[in-house]
Amino acid sequence: NTRRIVLPDNGRQWKDWKQASTVYSRNRIHTTKYTWFTFLPRNLLRQFHRLGILYFFFLVVLNWFPQVEVFHREITMLPLVMVLLASMIKDAVEDYRKYRYDKTINFTKTRVYDR
């Protein structure tokens, strides 16, 4: 079992593999939407593009005015928070499954057949 590194023939002579690897991008699959740092802002942005979430948010904002207040402020926020949390958990689990699948695909051994 010998390993072989294939570089494009563009007229340059590469002296070292590290030099070549900085020029060309990695050949890996990346299908996840979020990272640890971008999960909360990106997920909230995606959630508030949905009409139902905007309706619940409108009710929460409307209920903060004393003239229009029907229920307690906390009770009005409860449906919005529950729907947001359920959607966030679902998206987090789905994205983690994509991450694990990408990891298994990226570390799968392949065979190179010479002609």
UniProtKB/TrEMBL annotation:
Keywords: Membrane, Transmembrane, Transmembrane helix. This is AT10B ATPase. It comes from the Eukaryota. One of its GO terms (biological process) is phospholipid translocation. The keyword Transmembrane applies. The lineage of its organism: Eukaryota, Metazoa, Chordata, Craniata, Vertebrata. The chain crosses the membrane at residues 48-65, 77-93. The keyword Transmembrane applies. One of its GO terms (cellular component) is plasma membrane. GO terms for molecular function: ATPase-coupled intramembrane lipid transporter activity.
